[in-house]
User: Fold these one by one.
Assistant:
Number 1:
Amino acid sequence: EAAINRIAAGEVVERPASAVKELVENALDAGATRIEVTIADGGKTLIRVADDGCGIPATDLPLALARHATSKIDGSDLLDIRSFGFRGEALASLGAVGRLCIVSRVRGQDAARIEVDGGRLGAAQPAARQPGTTVEVRDLFHATPARLKFLRSDRAEMQAVGDVVRRLAMAEPFVGFVLRDCTGGEERETFRADAEQGELFGALAGRLSAVIGRDFAANALRIEAERDGVTLTGYAGLPTYSRGAAVAQYVFVNGRPVRDKLLLGALGAGYSDVLHRGRYPVAALFVGCDPRAVDVNVHPAKAEVRFREPGTVRGLVVSAIRHALAGAGH
Ligand code: ADP
Ligand code: MG
């Protein structure tokens, strides 16, 4: 059974960045207002995600690590997914491919810790912690050397982790994020975005400033449009902020970071009159729609989506961006 778990685990966790994504999404699902991610050696030796969320009751810790035992979806409507987690296997997978330790405390209860190594579950032990949860994964893929070989350099893996954290931070401006690199034992903060307060556009602008840059945020064009029940909210950068690669395009569907061809294509098309070929606009765009009008399960990593009315969504994005650019004299 442990071997089967290890094989299946590769589908959920293929590299440190995917582990970080699952753990941060769990923290968000738990209602965290502050999430701290610590990485060593590109995540190969250490990934730690600490949150101030609701915690896991000590008696539930073994259950949280059991495959499919705790899925947040009840199966009644697979297309209507509101919380990030719904497969109930991230923790089980991480426990199968690394050395996993969870310390958690529910407010008003005692903290507990549990460890799993190569799928072998230890007993829950008393521990000390503020309310919230810390999940630590050491030596990811130590039990599956073949997967370890597929990882890229520490630097490239750390970059991918940073990208995942920035995208989730962009999606959740009211949550504080910190990313630290403690390679070699010395801690360096590589990203910080303090929790934003107040109304949505102000919060988004503040978060844009932390994630992309203060100057960019100060000059970004506000986007707010709606068509046939689909909403578009966010900021688009002036053409002068374009890049030579599509590295700073943050696109979300119902709050979920996606890397969707239709949306990225529409973003590019919105700028087609003002940007040369090979230049990519910088933007953070939030598409909102009825969860039943979009299928988020197209890709296992949930990065691609399929809209029921792709033409509506594309038209909305292209026209909203052209309108904003025209309003700014472009
Ligand atoms: P899923 O998120 O799909 O339910 P996971 O394996 O990611 O599956 O997590 C299993 C369960 O463990 C969750 O359903 C949740 O109950 C609990 N859990 C995991 N991480 C946290 C966290 N950071 N805070 C509170 N509960 C958590
Ligand atoms: Mg999860």
Note: The chain is about 30% helix and 25% strand.
Number 2:
Amino acid sequence: FSEDSTVTLLDYGAGNVRSVRNAIRHLGFDVKYVNKPEDILNAKLLVFPGVGAFASAMHVLTDNGLAEALCTYIEKDRPFLGICLGLQLLFESSEENGPVKGLGLIPGVVGRFDSSNGLRVPHIGWNGVQLTKESGILHDIEGQHIYFVHSYRALPSDANRDWVSSTCNYGDTFIASISRGNVHAVQFHPEKSGEVGLALLRNFLCPSTKSKLKRLASGKASRLAKRVIACLDVRANDSGDLVVTKGDQYDVREHTDENEVRNLGKPVELAGQYYSDGADEVTFLNITGFRDFPLGDLPMLQVLRYTSENVFVPLAVGGGIRDFTDANGRYYSCLEVASEYFRSGADKISIGSDAVYAAETYLKTGVKTGQSSIEQISTVYGKQAVVVSIDPRRLYVKSPEEVEFKTVKLRSPGPHGEHYVWYQCTINGGREGRPIGAYELAKAVEELGAGEILLNCIDCDGQGQGFDIDLIRLITDAVSIPVIASSGAGAVEHFSEVFQKTSASAALAAGIFHRREVPILSVKKHLLENGIEVRS
Ligand code: 1PR
């Protein structure tokens, strides 16, 4: 690589900048990291993917003299691209755990989305933007959905009007990007916005090349799209190879004499396939993580590393996130486990069994200790990086008084003439039922700091009979964070049903995609025909 094809990445060690690095490398550029202020001042192209919390980022930047160098670099109009927090830090201050002073280059205060009127916060997913001026790098995203994930945003005003190059609408109209001369910053994530995002990065890195982006069909993005997520349940088969498997009501073994683990393909290949098929997100669930320690499970980390090199939409991973002591007595905190997943390329982690224990303890004591995996990981990486995966099972009762958990009235009687059902949370891949309902769990984990819920249903899993609409309504009504509906998709109509009848933000499916019964594009086409906005 020549010096001109080297991009300087400002990584102050707060989290995962791997995705940005991968996207830059994918475009043929080399990456070097900032170690000292001079590295900023000498950069030819500087990319700043801010991660973590505003206050801790400002601390690190100020303590190392990086803040001053950054201000000088930007004031000299050198080529700069800030991403997410890398945009927010340019403003005067943020309300995130604050007020906290920012770099003060752009007038305005970064505030939290107002969730009091039913808005789901964080703003997670693919949204459209309105360009407000010519910037030189944004033309390919006009009318397209791009990926956002944040709880705080800056608002346009007379004082910062000169800077604003696009806005986005979610609850209110906020600043999606700023541009002035060679200085750009975006609230969204180009490195996670598929081909459209890569085109933006290319426009920044080599302004002289003509856009290679084939214009996509619709180009009419106007609001937050409903997401279609492909899920890969992954585990080692009996010969020790990591395979994508799929259960029927969580039973992943073939009902043959050999009783082997159902093998539906290779994780990295399938993830790549779903990315090119149009999946808005890919989720890996390490389904034996509850008994096999994930940091001992290096193939899973390898799967993430390889996948994130070629898949430029968000990657979530779950399985085995908890405190752990190995056979040699070495203790690993849940934060170390999650950090390893993030370092390997995950954008979000998902917690199953450990979230149930955390919620049970919290409901019993009413005290947030700060020690649960949800609290620890969301404090360091932000709420939006913490998904709680719920594995509920239906339990039928004659009347709501029979249980202390929230019940739902059945539309048709249960197997023994019951009129109500409650959803019991389970752990260890459905093997153990716990004394807590999905409704109670969802509320508790939101309070503890979860940013999203992945809502499975053991009864519906692999059945292809549609999502459990009652359950999804119960949980979307319980929380104000986004809910991903999962389990039971068997036809395109099941996706429109879940979005028409519930306020789920995303629908996740596994079996129909693995068995190639329904391509992701057909799901999206069907949703568009039914007036449901999706990324096309
Ligand atoms: O408890 O933190 O170690 O996390 C374990 C994770 O692994 C949890 O998220 C749990 O849901 C998942 N898991 C554990 N055992 C199984 C299993 O199937 N035996 N898979 C399992 C859960 C459910 C969905 C599935 C949908 C859609 N899989 O993710 O993909 O139901 O399927 P469908 O479209 O084919 O109906 P921890």
Note: The chain has a mean pLDDT of 92.
Number 3:
Amino acid sequence: PRPAVSVLGLGLMGTALASAFLKAGHPVTVWNRSHAKTGPLAAQGATPAGKAADAVAASDLVVVCLLDNGSVREVFETLGDRVAGKTLANLTNGTPQQARELAAWAAEHGARYLDGGIMAVPHMIAGPHAYVFYSGDQEAFETYEPAFAALGGARFTGTDPGFAAVHDLALLTGMYGMYMGVLQAFALARTENIPAAGLAGPLTEWIGAMLTGIGQDAEAIDSGEHLTDVSSIAVNRAAIPNFTATFRAQGLTTAFFEPLQELLDRAAEQGHEADGLSRLVDLLDS
Ligand code: NDP
């Protein structure tokens, strides 16, 4: 029989997680701060719990997905030692530091702790492209790996409970950086009445082509050998003023490109003009 799972938090994501566990045949108990959200899951076969403590008592595996780790801490405090002997898998987005603190709290209260970063939006859960980064108690991960498979892939990143958050934040950092550029691209096109739909195809193709260089950047960063035969700091540094000048002329902000110009200037001053853009990673310390 599949192990029982309790899900705390039935927002968009928690609901998708609970539903996936149900579909995979797990007995599922659900709790949410506003009780009404348990309704649709109860209709699918889940047992609604009136209190978080009742949900925790119902299953050895407790999956948590709330707004943020402040909320998680609040709910955990109401549970106290009732988490003893349980595995808490907290899939709420947070910082590595928060994950380490929650792991310490769980240890003090006799629970095993796993932190997780969900690399999917709710409708992707249980589909072929969804996966979750986990970190923390490796034995707990191995025990429940087959259960986690109900959500999609399960990737263990290390016994340091902060590692899932590091991986999650790193991937999302790449995404947000790309997204900022995409928005600026649409804004620029719009200043000349080019509809977004007209730019979407070429933009997708171009970003896709550029993404194929990530592996080469990674090699340069790990080896510290940034000399390039692709595109140098010097040539990029010469090009960036064309962007900022155009943005200014078209009435757009230059705010997102000024830091790039500053990094390129600094890299050049330090004698790295022949290196590739991967060199800039060394200049990002605060
Ligand atoms: P929602 O806003 O849909 O749900 C938030 C949930 O948190 C609700 O169940 C809400 O309860 C609960 N909550 C908020 N504050 C408290 C509190 N103080 N005490 C108890 N419960 C509280 O968010 P999502 O489900 O979309 O996201 C949940 C987590 O999953 C977030 O950390 C998010 O970053 C992460 N995530 C979400 C993704 C997405 O695409 N949606 C993708 C990857 C990760 P109530 O119903 O009572 O308000």
Note: The beta strands are 5-8, 28-31, 47-48, 61-64, 87-90, 112-119, 131-136, 153-156.
